[in-house]
Amino acid sequence: MSKTLVTGGTGFVGRAIVEALLAQGREVRVLARRPQHPALQGLSVEVVKGDLTAPDSLQQALQGCSRLFHVAADYRLWVPDPATMYEINVTGTRSLLQAALAAGLEKVVYTSTVGTLGNPGDGTPGTEETPVTLADMVGHYKRSKFLAEQVTLEYAARGLPVVIVNPSTPVGPWDNRPTPTGQMIVDFLNGKVPAFLDSGLNLIHVRDVAAGHLLAEERGRVGEKYILGYVNLTLAEIFAQLAALSGRPAPRWRLPYYPILGLAYLNEFWSTWITRRPPRIPLTAVKMAKKYMYFDSQKAVRELGLPQTPIAAALEEAVAWFRQHGFVQSTA
């Protein structure tokens, strides 16, 4: 087998995929804007400089590769200029898949998100088949990923052997940016979560997400979607587990939704037109919290053999990693 290209290999999920590929003895090439990225230190990979907004760099990165994991995305809940997000997530995906089709790749795995899928929101888990439209997408990130998923399905119909995976909420070590969920854990560890909205998430260990990508490459059906998730938990249940692991008290107060929504609108306006800095209360996050983001991953378990590591282990590793890498105040 020739080389495997990973886009987004410096990110949380991407790095876990790189580690999983290396564990199989694969030759791995990573596309990165910063070839000396610290997340890749100590990993035996080839790093090539490139960008999803530069089609020529994508064609060059694919030379000599037979497999592709397209993980890279602009993942932010607030952006000062949404056009940049669409250029990366939608146009960049189209450019990369076009290059992959021209290069005759053997297999492509595209990393989407459960955010593009239908979700009843009342605690009933969504599946790959739950009806959904673009109008259901909350925020530019979900909208851009929904459109990118449509591009991916278009290329599957054109003959590109591509499989779509939809990770839920990964947790674990090496969340070095961190993701919004990782930031929630960091804030909790630093005593900055006095209260919470009544909502819920589907969680999965980041290494299980990586394993799911490799299983999708091996066993996934072309043009199909697979939810990479594990357990559905309320935010109260997540904080209770974090409290047990960290020794910090869990927040007791549930916030009323609509007053917080109003504050989020004000905060968004202030950030967009005054400070140009990310809002403390992202409007998209508050809107998303109105629904229980629960999902059913049984298709991936059944068809791919997706592993299901106990979520307490993932949270424990995340807490330890954040503490070891300076995210948690020493007095906390």
Give an overview of the whole structure:
The structure is a single chain. The chain is α/β, with parallel strands linked by helices and 332 residues long. It has a domain at 3-176 and 202-234 and 294-310: Rossmann fold (3-Layer(aba) Sandwich). It has helices at 12-23, 55-62, 82-103, 139-157, 180-189, 206-219, 235-246, 257-275, 283-288, 298-304, 311-324, and strands at residues 3-7, 28-32, 46-49, 65-70, 107-111, 162-167, 169-171, 195-197, 200-205, 225-228, 231-234, 253-255, 292-293. The chain has a seven-stranded parallel sheet, sandwiched between helices. Helix 1 links the parallel strand 1 and strand 2. Helix 1 (12-23) crosses helix 6 (206-219) and helix 3 (82-103) runs parallel beside helix 4 (139-157). The longest helix has 22 residues, at 82-103. The protein is globular and about 55 Å long.
**Order of the strands making up the biggest sheet:** 3-2-1-4-5-6-10
What is the CATH architecture assignment of the domain at 3-176 and 202-234 and 294-310?
3-Layer(aba) Sandwich
Number of helices: 11
Strand content: 15-25%
> Could you tell me how far the N terminus lies from the C terminus, measured between alpha carbons in angstroms?
48 Å
Strand count, sense and barrel status of the largest sheet are: 7 strands, parallel
Shape: globular
Radius of gyration: 19 Å
Please bin the fraction of helical residues.
Answer: 40-55%
CATH superfamily of the domain at 3-176 and 202-234 and 294-310, by name, is NAD(P)-binding Rossmann-like Domain
